[in-house]
C-alpha cells in the first residue's frame, strides 16, 4: 500500500534524489519519467512511479511552472581552442557519451567553444539570455570564470573534472590520483629505477591529482621524490616533445616515463626514438586516457583508462536531475553530485 505525503529521511519534503535511490535509477531517469518522456522502458517507468507514490514526491512547482519556457537545449561548453578539441581523443569520447545519453531525451545538444576572450564574451551574453536549459563544462581550468557565471545566472550546470578539492558545482571525474599511483606502481614492479613524469597543465585539478598519485606511488615503493623528474606540459603532442627533451637533458639515465596523456606520450615517444632510446628496452612509457592513440602506437602504449564515455553519460544524468530540481545547489548538498569513477591501468608492450 502506497503512503502519500511521506517525509524524507531528512525530515523535509521528499527529494528527487530519494526517488531515484528508491527506484534504483539515476536522477535524470526520474526527470524523464516525471516530464513524460517516451524514451523510458515500461519497467523503469513503473519503478519510478511506484517510488514517487511511496515517498509522496511532489515535483518542484517553480521548475514545473518554468517548463513552458524551456528551450529543450543543453550546451556542451569547451573553454579551449577548436584545434585542441579535434586533436585530442578525450573530447570526442566525451562528446560520444554525452550524445548517446542525451539521445534518450527530446533535448538538443549545442557544442560551444570558448577558447578566446571574444568567444567567452559572446557565450556570457548567450547564457544570460537563458537560451539553454543547462550547461556541461568540459576541460575547465582553476581560474576559469565560467562556472561562477553559471552560478550567478542560476543556470543548472555540471562540470567535467573538479576545479579544486572545494568544487561547488556538481561534477563528474575519474580517479586521477589512483590512476597516477597505479602507473608508478607498475613501473616499479618492472624494475624501473628513475621514473619521470610529464605532467599536464598544472592549473587543471586532474593534472595536479595525477602528480599527487605519481608522488605517492614512489613513496609506496620507498623512493624519494625528486621534483626535477616532474616536468609540466600542456596535454599536447608538442608539449610532450618539449617536456621529454627537458627530462632527458636533466636525466640521461632515465629508464621510465609516465605521461599525463596519450597525446603527450606520442610526443615523448618521438623524442625518445630520435635520441636512440628503445621502448621499452631502454625507457618504459605509459600514457593516460587509453585512447585510440594508445592502441595504434608502435609499440602499443600502456595507458591509464579513464571511462570517458561513461563520464559523459553520467554528466547528462546529473544535469537532467539539476534541471528538474532547480533549488540552489547549496540547499541540496553536493554529496551525491561529486562523482568519481574508477581509472584502470591497461598494460601493453610499451612498459
TrEMBL record:
Regions crossing the membrane:
none
Instruction: List each copy of the HTH lacI-type domain by range.
Output: 14-68
Please give the SMART domains that the UniProt record associates with this protein: HTH_LACI
Q: Which SUPFAM superfamilies match?
A: lambda repressor-like DNA-binding domains, Periplasmic binding protein-like I
User: Which UniProt keyword terms apply here?
Assistant: DNA-binding, Transcription, Transcription regulation
Q: Which GO molecular function annotations are given, in alphabetical order?
A: DNA-binding transcription factor activity; transcription cis-regulatory region binding
Matching CDD domains, A to Z?
Answer: HTH_LacI, PBP1_LacI_sugar_binding-like
Whether Heme counts among this entry's keywords is: no
Q: Does the keyword Plastid apply?
A: no
Q: Under which name does UniProt file this protein?
A: LacI family transcriptional regulator
Q: What taxonomic ancestry is recorded?
A: Bacteria, Bacillati, Actinomycetota, Actinomycetes, Kitasatosporales
Amino acid at each position: 500500500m502506497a503512503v502519500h505525503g511521506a517525509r524524507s529521511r531528512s525530515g523535509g519534503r521528499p527529494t528527487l534524489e530519494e526517488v531515484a535511490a528508491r527506484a534504483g535509477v539515476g536522477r535524470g531517469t526520474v526527470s524523464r519519467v516525471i516530464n513524460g518522456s517516451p524514451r523510458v522502458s515500461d519497467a523503469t517507468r513503473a519503478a519510478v512511479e511506484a517510488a514517487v507514490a511511496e515517498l509522496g514526491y511532489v515535483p518542484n512547482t517553480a521548475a514545473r511552472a518554468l517548463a513552458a519556457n524551456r528551450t529543450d537545449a543543453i550546451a556542451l561548453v569547451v573553454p579551449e581552442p577548436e584545434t585542441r578539441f579535434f586533436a585530442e581523443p578525450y573530447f570526442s569520447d566525451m562528446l560520444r557519451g554525452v550524445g548517446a545519453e542525451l539521445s534518450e531525451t527530446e533535448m538538443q545538444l549545442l557544442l560551444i567553444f570558448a577558447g578566446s576572450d571574444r568567444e567567452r564574451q559572446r557565450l556570457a551574453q548567450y547564457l544570460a539570455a537563458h537560451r539553454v536549459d543547462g550547461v556541461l563544462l568540459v576541460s575547465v581550468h582553476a581560474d576559469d570564470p565560467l562556472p561562477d557565471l553559471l552560478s550567478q545566472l542560476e543556470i543548472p550546470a555540471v562540470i567535467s573534472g573538479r576545479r579544486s578539492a572545494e568544487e561547488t558545482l556538481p561534477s563528474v571525474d575519474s580517479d586521477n590520483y589512483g590512476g597516477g599511483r597505479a602507473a608508478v606502481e607498475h613501473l616499479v614492479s618492472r624494475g624501473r629505477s628513475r621514473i619521470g613524469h610529464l605532467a599536464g597543465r598544472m592549473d587543471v585539478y586532474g593534472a595536479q591529482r595525477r602528480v599527487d598519485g605519481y608522488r605517492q606511488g614512489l613513496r609506496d615503493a620507498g623512493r624519494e621524490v625528486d621534483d626535477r623528474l616532474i616536468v609540466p606540459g600542456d596535454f599536447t603532442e608538442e608539449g610532450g616533445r618539449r617536456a621529454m627533451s627537458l627530462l632527458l637533458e636533466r636525466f640521461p639515465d632515465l629508464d621510465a616515463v609516465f605521461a599525463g596523456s596519450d597525446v603527450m606520450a606520442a610526443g615523448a615517444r618521438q623524442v625518445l626514438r630520435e635520441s636512440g632510446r628503445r621502448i621499452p628496452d631502454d625507457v618504459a612509457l605509459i600514457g593516460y586516457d587509453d585512447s585510440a592513440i594508445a592502441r595504434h602506437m608502435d609499440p602499443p602504449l600502456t595507458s591509464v583508462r579513464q571511462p570517458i564515455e561513461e563520464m559523459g553519460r553520467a554528466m547528462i544524468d546529473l544535469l537532467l536531475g539539476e534541471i528538474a530540481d532547480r533549488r540552489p545547489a547549496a540547499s541540496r548538498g553536493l554529496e551525491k553530485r561529486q562523482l568519481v569513477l574508477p581509472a584502470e591501468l591497461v598494460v601493453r608492450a610499451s612498459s
